[in-house]
Specification:
The chain is an alpha+beta fold. The chain has two helices and three strands, in the order H-H-E-E-E.
């Protein structure tokens, strides 16, 4: 599944690439977003995104 996803997203596939965050960063970067992890005190929020006039942000809990 990861190999197929990488092919369709134009990401170079590496057998050791199993971290979904690496895939997400690469895919979102191409769309003008920065992806980073930041723990939230809320257990119900898994992620959020924001895009203003410039760069966008995806924050993963």
């Amino acid at each position: 599944m990861i190999k197929i996803f990488c092919f369709f997203r134009g990401i170079e596939y590496d057998n050791s690439l199993l971290d979904i965050l690496q895939i997400a960063r690469s895919s979102f970067r191409k769309k003008g977003f920065l992806v980073f992890q930041m723990p939230f005190a809320d257990d119900e929020i898994g992620a959020l995104s924001y895009r203003g006039d410039g760069i966008g942000y995806v924050v993963i809990n």
